[in-house]
Amino acid sequence: MAEAYDTVLTAALLLLGLGLFACLIRAVRGPSTADRVISVNMAGTLIIMTILLLTLFLKEAYLADIALIYALISFLAVVLLVRIFVSLNRKRGGEDGRDA
């Protein structure tokens, strides 16, 4: 049973790695700023999920604390990115930052 558990965790880690790679490609290619911000947010979420799966795989409880700290930092980074991009867009005379 332990072998099956390890196999499932390994497969999940590989899938998360593929998803992270896809998010990084979207962050580089764009095409819009919103796509880049969303992909960075999704990459942060996938990294948090990876850390939590490693918590189960390695049986190290302190990794869950690291995942929580990373989640807070990731949230703050995305909020900061959105504020920067909205202010830059306003300076360039683009949209006013409000949804229709």
Verbal overview:
The protein is mainly α. The protein has one domain. It has helices at residues 2-29, 33-58, 62-91. Helix 1 packs antiparallel against helix 2 (33-58) and helix 2 packs antiparallel against helix 3. The chain is elongated, with a radius of gyration of 17 Å. The termini are far apart. The model has no long low-confidence stretch (mean pLDDT 89).
What are the SSEs and their pairings?
Blueprint: H1 2-29, H2 33-58, H3 62-91
Helix pairs in contact: 1-2, 2-3
Summarize the entry for a quick read.
With 100 residues, the chain is mostly helical. It is built from three helices and no strands.
Shape: elongated
Query: Percentage of helical residues?
Result: over 70%
- Which stretches are low in confidence, meaning pLDDT under 50 for 5 or more residues running? none
Instruction: Provide the residue-averaged pLDDT.
Output: 89
Termini gap: 53 Å
Secondary structure: number of strands: 0
- Helical/strand content category: mainly alpha
Strand content: under 5%
Main sheet summary: none
| SSE series | HHH
Number of domains: 1
| Alpha-carbon Rg, integer | 17 Å
If helices are DSSP runs of H or I spanning 4 or more residues, what is the number of helices? 3
Oligomeric state of the chains present here: single chain
Keywords:
100 residues, mainly alpha, 3 helices, 84% helix, 0% strand
